[in-house]
Every structure is written in structure tokens, then in C-alpha cells.
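Why run this: before we spend reagent on co-expression, it is cheaper to look at a predicted model of the complex and decide which construct boundaries make sense. The entries below are exactly what would go into the expression plan.
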Amino acid sequence: MLPVVVVHGGAGHIPNERAETSCTGVRAAARGGYAVLKGGGSAMDAVVEAVTLLENNPAYNAGCGSVLNVKGGVEMDAIVMDGRTLDSGAVSAVKRIANPVQLARLVMEKTSHLCLTAEGASEFARAMGIQEVPEESLITDYARMRWKKNLDPGSNPVECQMGKMGTVGAVAVDTEGNVACATSTGGMINKMEGRVGDTPCIGCGGYADNQSGAVSPTGHGEAIMKVTLSRQILFYMEQGKSAQEAADEGLAYMRERVQGLGGVVVVDPQGAWAARFSSRQMAWAAAQNELLHYGLYAGEDIMQSIQDPDLPHTHSQE
Amino acid sequence: MLPVVVVHGGAGHIPNERAETSCTGVRAAARGGYAVLKGGGSAMDAVVEAVTLLENNPAYNAGCGSVLNVKGGVEMDAIVMDGRTLDSGAVSAVKRIANPVQLARLVMEKTSHLCLTAEGASEFARAMGIQEVPEESLITDYARMRWKKNLDPGSNPVECQMGKMGTVGAVAVDTEGNVACATSTGGMINKMEGRVGDTPCIGCGGYADNQSGAVSPTGHGEAIMKVTLSRQILFYMEQGKSAQEAADEGLAYMRERVQGLGGVVVVDPQGAWAARFSSRQMAWAAAQNELLHYGLYAGEDIMQSIQDPDLPHTHSQE
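The model came back. C-alpha cells follow.
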């Protein structure tokens, strides 16, 4: 069963013309994370590799491709957590960084803190020798188009938000049974400057504990925060639920208590995994036992050998 | 049993010469919160009133009296949470604000977000008409002395940190059985610029749910985050533990898993409450049934009528 990596490219309503790109990207990220694990890398190495690939892919709302805040700027959040020690690192509202997930890992490894925000996070990045990138290099035409559309006072920001959430994340178990999670996002479309969502908030935007498992969520950040979704799902697993049962129960609880939609990828230390969502779609992929699983709509679980060339696939409900 | 308010002025090792001031302040804050509740105010009104009083008191590490970051500046975190709706508001790394807890409440009430950070939080404060205060007005001689002492490369930051944590917080239940929590802090002594601790992180620095209760913690922020202490304690209560049992179990869990010390105030919706700590001391006070309870050392529960004049008290172990 080990190792395994499961990634997501965000829950929500993914426009048809972007569906295939979304699926190709998560498959590539799962392959990348799996290669790290097969090469003897740790669960932490694998989730950071997978999320880095997704941040570098302009199809997702993380790193390059991030949504813009109300001022037209990019402010990103990211978190990693290591199930061996419960240690974690996060950055919030960080600007001009190509790979916030790697900066989050450095916060964990090189400081006595768990989270750095805004200018303090940038200063730490400089001290670590991470080159700042021009903000323009993180902004896609698609992000700018959506930003402009949402500036219209007649637009419905919640509805538009559901149109493409695109937070990315990964969970993994390595051959030694260690679990880890990583999540990265540009946040919510046309958010206020300085808005911090669920992603960098431990227990909300991710949690990993070798005694129970690891979770990376996506969806309506404020709803995820109100129910501390990642920690909630691991509580269900501590009480004996499977990864899939716990994921479904957590998403149902969020829907009931705070009317929030989203999705999660979950693993337990034995390698059982789940990719579940209450939103219309979630692009996800998992790699285990030399097989690649992936899907976009509820109920989809398409399989291919991990060695097969990546071919485009037409989803049944598109 | 209702209403009730319980406040803390921080866990850690409180120097003898500051012990009485610490206790006087929490008694005053509990009286203030209780007066709000007796006047028909909500649990949210009461915790914000109590924490505002503690922020305004230079004896605590919140608002005026906050510890300084490594650059000698004040960056504050605060959170509120309303158990009726699971709605919450928080600010992180906010500067030049006299009462971060009130700004956190405005984030909850006036935005669609749950947390604003750094300059974005300041801009929101200005939009809300909150006057910025000079940074100097938040800095005490004591904070500056400790900052200088900790700049010494030979100092032990963790040990010095334990010397005075002083995060403040409150939980309350109003006459309608609604619970709320609020927590406010200057963070960790000589922290890096932009360091975000447990306080603004929902589930860590506070949690409130009418179905289980409310928690406000204090102690080593990074340890509180790793175990999402507030949410953990409420999980124990959901499983049938009393407020006191759940508090003790949560603190024991934090000590075991991540070697962290701290303290909490907890209420359940019926009005049972607890003020518990694994650190050497925690200044706390509770008001219920026209009685004021307070203590500083483990096992202390001193009582007086809420109408009695506030007289200094010599603690047995000082």
C-alpha cells in the first residue's frame, strides 16, 4: 500500500474549457510526488514537490495563476505539516514569491515559529536567499480578466468564487509510514488586502499526524476555518472512521453547520486514501502501487498505469 | 449558573513583584465582563469588554504592554469567536492599534472574511474609523527592558519567554446560553517580524461553539498550534468530559505530544467553567452567581462577593 500521494487542484465549478488542463496538471503533480517517494524521499519531500508543480502551473489558483485581491495584487498563503513531529510551517499574505510552499517549509525548518506573515515573511525569504519574482510573472490573463469582472458592483463574489477556487494541495505517506500535507493558494477572488484564509491556519488548511493521517482541503476558506475542517476529519479517523468515511462526514458537517462546500484529499498511515468533495467538481489524482487514479466529477475514479504516457481524457459529464 | 465570565492574564512564571498587579487586573476584567452580562449584554459583548480592559492594562502582554519583536516593534494578534454561528474574526501582526480585540470583532461583523493581517488590517481599521495610536504609547519600560535583555546572544529566548507570557483572554456564557471567546496578545518576546502565533488561528487561539463550549488559551503559542489546543479541548467535551476534565486532558496532551506548557479558561453552555494550567502560574478570575473567584498558583480558588471592594491579597506561595 505504501507509498502513496494524493493531490487536488481545487474544488468548485471548473469551466469546461479548463477541465482537461486541470486534470493534466494534477496527474503530473501526483506522478512527480510519487517519483520522489519511490526514490526514497519523505512524505514531506513528496507533498512539497507535488505542490511546487501545481504552483508552477498557471491553471491553478496558487503561485503563478493566483487570483488577484481587490487591488489587483497577488497575496498567497501556504502551509506544510509533518506528521512525525506535528511540526508545521506557514506563510500568509506573502507577495512576489514563486513557491510559497517551499517558503512555508523553510519557516518550519529554519525558525522557531510556525507562521510568518506579509513583509516579515518576505524578509525571511530574502534572508534564506530566495529570489523575489516580479508580481507580473505570477499574474495570468485569466486571473486579470476575472478580477476585472468581479470589480463590477453587480457581480456576486460568492458565486464567482465558486467558479474557480483552485487552491492546490497534497497528502502523502512514505515507505516508513510517515504522513505529511501541503496546501497553497492565492486565496479568494477580489479578497480584501491582507485577507488570510484557511490555508495557513493549522488544523484548517491542513493537518498531519502519524497517529491518524493527513488532510489537505480546498473550498470556501471561511467555512473551512469555522469548522477547522482538517482537524475535524482526523478526529473522525481517531474515532475509527476510514479516510473516506471521515472525509465525507467532515464535508457533510461543514455543509450542515456553516453551509460551506469544498473538498479534501486524505490519507491514513497505512496508505488508505480518499479524494472527496461536496462541490460540483474537484480535480484530483492519486498514485499508489504503480497506478495513477484521477477524477473531476463525483464518482469518477479513472485508472491507468503510472508508466503510461499521459493522454487527454474526455470526462463523462463534461 | 448563568451568566458567567472567566478571564486569564497569561500563563507562565510571573515575577513576584508583578503578581499582585496581574491578579488585580484579571479581577477587574472579570467584574467588567460580568457587569456587561448582568446588564443583558451578549457573551460576545462580555468577552470583548473583558479583553479590552486587559489590553488597556500595561501589566499584560496585549495592547499596551505588549512584548516587542526582535526589531523593537509591537505586532499584535487577536481573535473573537461567537458560539451561536461559529463566526469569528481575527487580526494578525497588526500595528499601532490600541485594542486589537475590537478590530477582530469588526473583521467578523463588517467583512466576509475571518482574518486580516498586517497592513491590510491597518487599512481596514482606518476604513472603520479607528484611530491609529503612536507605537510608543503601546510600549512600556518593562517591555523595552526585556527586549534589550533578550537581544543578548547569550540569553535563552524560551526561558525568558516563560518569564512572562501574559497573553490575555476571556470566555463567557450569557443568560441565553450563548458562548463566546476572545484572546489578544503581543506574541512572543523578540519574535521575528511577521511571526503569527496561535492567537489569531481559529481552533488554536480560541474556539466557541454553543453545542460544546468556549476556550481561550495562553502559553507557548507554537505548541498550542501543533495540537490545535482549543478545538482539542472542545472535542473532549463533545465526548462527555467536563470543562475541567477536558482542560486538564488537553493540557496533558500538549505536554506529552509537543512538550508545551500553557493554560486555558473554559466554559460549557450550562455555565460550568474551569481555569487550568500546566505552567507554574496563571492569573485568572471568574464571575458567577455574584461571586468572584480568582487565583494565580495551582489549586488556588479564592472567593469574594462581586460587590466587595477590590483589596490586595497575598498569595500563599509568593
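The longest helix of chain A spans residues 16-38. The mean pLDDT of chain A is 94. Bring this page to Monday's planning discussion.
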